[in-house]
Amino acid sequence: MLLFDLGVLITSLHFVQPIGYYSVISKRKLSTTPTNRPLPLISIIIPTYNERARIRKKLKNVFEKTKGENVEVIIIDSSKDGIEEELREFSDVKLIKQQNRTGKIHAVKEAMRQSKGDIVVVTDADAIWIDPLSNALSYLNGKVGAVTCVKHSYGELENSYRDFYNDVRVGESAMFSTPIFNGEMVAFNRNLITPEEIPTVGADDSTIATLLSLKGYRAISIPTMRVVEESPKKILEYLSWKTRRGSHLVRHFLRNVIKVMRSSNKDFKIVFAEETYLHTVGPWFLIIGLSLMLFSAPVITMGVIAIASLFMVNKRFRKIALAWIPNQIALILSQFFAMKGEVIVWRKELK
Length: 351
Ligand code: GDD
Ligand code: MN
Known about the structure:
Blueprint: H1 2-25, E1 42-48, H2 52-64, E2 71-77, E3 93-97, H3 104-113, E4 119-122, E5 127-129, H4 134-137, E6 144-152, H5 156-175, E7 186-189, H6 204-214, E8 218-229, H7 235-262, H8 266-279, H9 282-296, H10 298-310, H11 315-338
Parallel strand pairs: 1-2, 1-4, 2-3, 6-8
Antiparallel strand pairs: 4-7, 5-8, 6-7
Helix pairs in contact: 1-9, 5-11, 6-7, 7-8, 7-11, 9-10, 9-11
The protein binds guanosine-5'-diphosphate-alpha-D-mannose (GDD) and manganese (II) ion.
């Protein structure tokens, strides 16, 4: 019975810990207020690799959501898909062609060097902004050095689990900063960071947020800046996508955790330590705990699982559980994947 008890303990810890974190962090509300001052020149960087089919929709969306603002739009492209053909009607868009595909991070850094705006915005080609960009940029002043969006979906049920993650990001932002940024919209004040300071990594978005936080600036997620992102529909593509993104985050946390723990900002340290735990040790507790339980008392364990699944009749609970459990498995796969080293140029999944 000892093994079973241990299994119960570890499994419970897996669930209780994040639930506790969620209930504390989601109560935090952003107290920072946006300003009404006119925005300076904004450089909008769109790195592209084989995005010809999407780019017109993307550009229309960017111009619509920045109406009235002073913007320069830069596409930095490393494909041979004839994207130029699609850009004819957008004479004011600057296109930088790269000879070879060297990964998003190199593209972003190069475009930063060739841009002029006081605010730099990086946005993925497959992301569509729902809200005007100024909703987020108006927070950029004083101690707030970087802002990012929240992820939205058009399905209400889908949003119930997205809101769960968004609430955490916004709550962390209210504490000080969130160490996880969304590449669908990342904006920062140019004078706070040079391209040379940004390491050659996969998780460019979260790295920028963490770098600025270590410099004493806040990197926050804005709930009124909602973005929809395309995701792979086929299960294997989806898994490959999740695993790659997860491995970038795993490496991001492991690379920075010691640096952050040695820094002096207590609030950021708490958030960073928690997220490092959730991306590394946490998922193993589910697997190890459940395995111990199944191994020592299979029948009782199946009974417990059956009772727990009764909660699944609640739609919201079901949605969160159905996002949480596969996420844990993807995170474990991500950790193995992360051992391969930093993947800068990744396979493009079908979306
Ligand atoms: N120029 C250039 N060169 N652009 C690239 C390259 C490249 O080698 N590779 C990818 N991109 C562009 C894509 O065309 C897209 O606009 C953007 O970079 C993000 O790439 P996706 O392939 O769509 O990535 P994702 O949305 O699945 O990835 C998410 O996680 C990444 C880290 O794993 C996003 O949040 C990314 O921003 C993040 O870097
Ligand atoms: Mn994307």
